[in-house]
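Exercise 3.2. Students should predict the tertiary structure of the chain below and write it as structure tokens, then compare their answer with the key that follows.

Predict this chain's 3D structure.
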Amino acid sequence: MTDEITARAGREFYTFDGRILEIFSSHPKRFHIRNTDLRVTGPDRKGRRTVEVFTGPPEARATQHTWQLSAEEWERAEGLEALFEAVRAAVAASREHGA
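Answer key:
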């Protein structure tokens, strides 16, 4: 992947370049695909989605970052679902190739 994918949800700006997921907000975060797992669940009965980013190897997680997006934030966030899919695909590929 050579193109950067970006999306905005609420006050957060997301970018993924194929290796690094960055989330710019009041507390910016960076996650490298070789040390990351991403899970998006929902929607719940109110339409919220929960995003969880785990760092560390799958057998010994180091940290977990969790946040929720309202139904409105999710609907307005053009490209966010595609960005998360690209991150998950990159994580899976890095595990397959031991990269």
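Discussion points: The first strand starts at residue 5 and ends at 9. The two ends are 14 Å apart (CA to CA).
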